[in-house]
Amino acid sequence: MKKLILTFIAFVGLCVPLSAQCTYPFQDINLNDDERIDNLLSLMTIDEKVNALGTELGVPRLGIMRTEHSEGLHGMALGGPGGWGGKHLVNSRIVTIEYPTTIFPQAYGLGETWDPELIRKVADIEATEIRYYTQNRKYNKGGMVMRAPNADLARDPRWGRTEESFGEDAFLTARMTVAFVKGLQGDNEKYWKSASLMKHFLANSNEDGRSFTSSNFDEQLFREYYSYPFWKGITEGGARAFMAAYNSWNGTPMAVHPILTEVTRKEWGNNGIICTDWGALNLLVTAHKAFPTHAEGVAAVIKAGVGQILDTTYKPYIYEALEKKILTEADIDKAIRGNYYVALRLGLLDADQLRLPYSHIGVTDTIRPWMNKDIHNFVRLVTAKSVVLLKNDKKTLPLDKNKIKSIAVIGPRANEVLLDWYSGTPPYDVTILQGIKNALGDDVKVLFEPSNEMDKAYVAAQKADYAIVCVGNHVYGTDTKWKYSPVPSDGREAVDRKALSLEQEDLVKVVHKANPNTIMVLVSSFPFAVNWAQENLPAIVHISNSSQELGNGLADVIFGRYNPAGRTTQTWVKSIEDLPPMMDYDIRNGRTYMYTKRKPLYPFGYGLSYTTFEYRKVTLSSDSPAKKDTLRIVVDVKNTGDVKGEEVVQLYVSYPDSKVKRPIKQLKGFKRQMINAGQTVPVEINLKVEDLAYWDMNRKEFVVEDGRINLMIGSSSDNILLTKQIRIK
């Protein structure tokens, strides 16, 4: 007994880091993670453990603060079309309360920046707002587990959720995913600012039939393509959470797939959260028909390693499974222990919350981040950086506002900022019309017409020096009808696109007939086959939806305040017939820039500038690197124009000696570099030789082949300007 008392006294002494005293061993920061979680699980009741199988990380009885999930693909979604802030009873009416948050361009637009460090800062700002809302007593809203980023690959432009993805390429998406994860979780070695929960593992890129269809492909594509961004997000980014997709892979629903444990936990080291998508438990029974009862389904989900279930009615099935002894408390313990690893990293289990590195946000630091002017300016910069200049004949752009007396702004996307389903509510928004007015001031007459009703657009275009036609998809984020997407070329969650042609191109034709100085602004969440516009218009720019600085960011590009350097992140095909069948997940059958042999409208990695660049020479640290080496590649690039600008230098590789089928070419490095007019800059790209590996399905490992590798450096996948060859030894 004396020994036990002394041990307890010693334990209490260790539990006083600053001002708070530990009540339980799990609060002791001097114990290792497993010891703390073991103690916590031993103290929890079965009801608390069942509750933990939802999205709740808190255990109020034990003093653990409650926190759940938030959405955050391009800014924290707390409010917005999806009503993520929650519904409340106000004056006897149920209403959605809007909580403002900083809203950036859609993830698709963020990908088009080709700038991982920029994306990391975007996610860091988002994480600050997460902490503010969850810790500020006025709000206590949202949850610190962020359902972001989307690491899915946009293998087909018809995918309804293309807007949520960084693009079609595994390497680029992985770099953006890693950056976003690091931005959300922060730089502290022990504690996270928020927790990144990546979506949707795995191969979730068809909406029609997603609740029962199977994405079928071999293990090589699993390792090299579909799972690659998730793998890097975990092993390099440090994410310890992801959401399982609705669909199956090769016939097995992802919510119960063995790879959740065998690959993501045992191989990759994800000792954190795995959750289902919303309603996935029910779909296992009703759509996939994988189990005859919900009790059997929920038992299988938990035994597969899933520790959070998003179905709102899962609890009765848990108790039924326990009663029938097809599930045990030990099974639940094993599944939810990852939840509390995440809670540890968020600091939720510590006794002294005041000593945590992010405890001041929203508590002592009560300046609302979404009202910060510096952040507003940053959103504007990100928006401008995301713009892709698709065409610019005869240097139509930028427009010189000093030489313009009148300008017509036309089209359905000109005077609105559309918020998608996963967008929050911005504190303000700037439409394209307003952004143009802001840029021009009072000295230039601005004519606005949303459509050609009664020939109004035609007349306005005739009166103006230039016409800017703003067209593109509608995100239908605010529409209460699920699966609502009435125009064939539009898409959203639960609805794939049925066309790639742009119906509004007819409006562009009318305006161009009235005024040959017509510029098309394509405000869209995915590619369109705008062949007529490419053949006939002098200038085309692309920008994605939803940024609160949409108008100002675009105007900065239109009028030359910012030189565009955005790049496409998908292959923009000329026709829907250039695509394989939607459910063909074997990308080797002609899908993406890596395997297609058809000439695209705009290739992957494409984008123009207001200046010109010359690629002069490339220098290698070695022409025969070893398999564990990192090859240093330096490209001398000169800005040969008269204005400064950014060039996105891209490194592609091919494998002439490979004994297995490899891509025609494959992105393996890139760098967005600012270069002053007349300046030559050495642009460095580091290539890890191990990144040239393929997955050997016999050996069950990544293998770097001996032999020649072609290095191809250029400004897009279709514009290779310098080549070198190395030999792997």
Textual characterization of the structure:
The protein has 20 helices and 26 strands. With 729 residues, the protein is of the alpha/beta class. The strands form eight sheets. Strands 12-17-16-15-13-14 form a six-stranded mixed β-sheet, with helices on both faces. A four-stranded antiparallel β-sheet has the order 21-20-25-26, with no helix packed on it. Strand 9 and strand 10 form a beta hairpin. The chain starts with a helix and ends with a strand. Mean pLDDT is 95; it is low at 1-19.
Short descriptors:
729 residues; alpha/beta; six-stranded mixed beta sheet; four-stranded antiparallel beta sheet; 20 helices; globular; disordered N terminus
Quick recap:
This protein has 729 residues and is α/β, with parallel strands linked by helices.
